[in-house]
Design brief:
Radius of gyration: 19 Å
Strand content: 25-35%
Distance between the termini: 41 Å
Shape: globular
Order of helices and strands: EEHEHHEEEHEEEHEHEEEEEEH
Largest sheet: 7 strands, mixed
Number of helices: 7
Number of strands: 16
Length: 303
């Protein structure tokens, strides 16, 4: 994979969780509307938040138990993917389609939280969440299992990778990624409270500094009340972080939508030109202001 691009335009859809549809077909139509909007703004990739599949619970049976929600969602994931898979080629834009539960290969525990990437040329990449929050891993709740692989892939001449939400909070993972030469991390996220948003987005900003890479992170906002009475609350925004370098604006914040807990409509779109070429040059030349290079603390002893 040869990274060659100087800039890439990325769109992040900060999605209102409660902007729901009555069935999968109309849900997919709402996703396509945002894909078309992003493409019209010149974006080459659209990133949708983690657990966008929760919106389907708006048309779930009203007697669906909370512990059975993920199984019900996983049964609908294949049809949802079939509906949105063609959007990348149709609109000429890569789609990071949030995350949805899928059956794990060995069915123990039975599901994975998976982000799918659909490329305009028909290519596909996926990432299974590596680190789970308590409700995701609890056997009596959603009972998910974890992924074990981070895949890098070519995105129009940019070396990219996907991490999901809590994955971006792991310094040990950052150290493992430091030698991979990643130009851009794309991070679908779902956080219930401002505290969760603050953890995920602060750590995403830190990863941009540590890896000397761009990090694009987006989440959901607002409330979803399901037919069985479950209430999901979400608080988040969207941001494009870059290393805190003088040549990149000093602060590390290229663009952002501040966090929100409520609003109307499907949610705003943030489209930004990410200067991956300038960042890559700094990384390859070790020309960051104080960047020590890909550093994994080998040889360091804690006493």
């Amino acid at each position: 994979m040869t990274a060659t691009r100087e800039t890439i335009r990325v769109a992040l859809w900060c999605t209102r969780l409660g902007h729901v549809a009555p069935d999968l077909e109309r849900w997919a139509a709402a996703v396509e509307a945002k894909v078309a909007e992003a493409a019209a703004q010149g974006a080459e990739v659209l990133v949708v938040p983690e657990w966008i599949a929760k919106q389907w619970l708006a048309f779930a049976p009203d007697d669906l138990a909370g512990r059975d929600e993920v199984a019900w969602l996983a049964e609908r994931t294949p049809e949802a993917l079939k509906l949105i898979r063609p959007l990348a080629a149709r609109h000429g834009i890569a789609l990071v389609a949030g995350s949805m539960p899928v059956h794990s290969p060995d069915d123990s525990p039975p599901w994975l939280n998976r982000a799918h990437v659909f490329l305009p040329d028909g290519g596909e990449v996926h990432h299974d969440k590596l680190c789970l929050v308590p409700s995701e891993r609890e056997p009596d709740d959603w009972n998910l299992s974890t992924g074990t692989v981070v895949r890098t892939f070519d995105l129009n001449g940019v070396r990219a990778a996907i991490l999901i939400c809590l994955d971006i909070e792991l310094p040990a993972l950052s150290a493992r990624l430091a030698s991979a030469g990643i130009d851009m991390l794309l991070v679908p996220s779902y956080t219930s409270r401002l505290s969760g948003y603050s953890r995920v987005f602060s750590c995403a900003r830190a990863r941009a500094v540590e890896l000397l890479s761009a990090v694009c992170v987006v989440g959901c906002f607002g409330e979803l009340r399901t037919a069985n009475g479950t209430v999901f609350q979400s608080t988040a925004g969207a941001a494009v972080y870059v290393p805190c370098e003088p040549d990149l604006g000093m602060t590390g914040i290229l663009d952002e939508i501040p966090p929100r807990a409520a609003g109307e409509g499907p949610g705003p779109l943030l489209a930004s030109d990410v200067p991956v070429g300038r960042i890559r040059a700094m990384r390859s030349e070790s020309s960051g202001e104080v960047w020590p290079g890909a550093w994994d603390a080998s040889g360091i002893t804690v006493v």
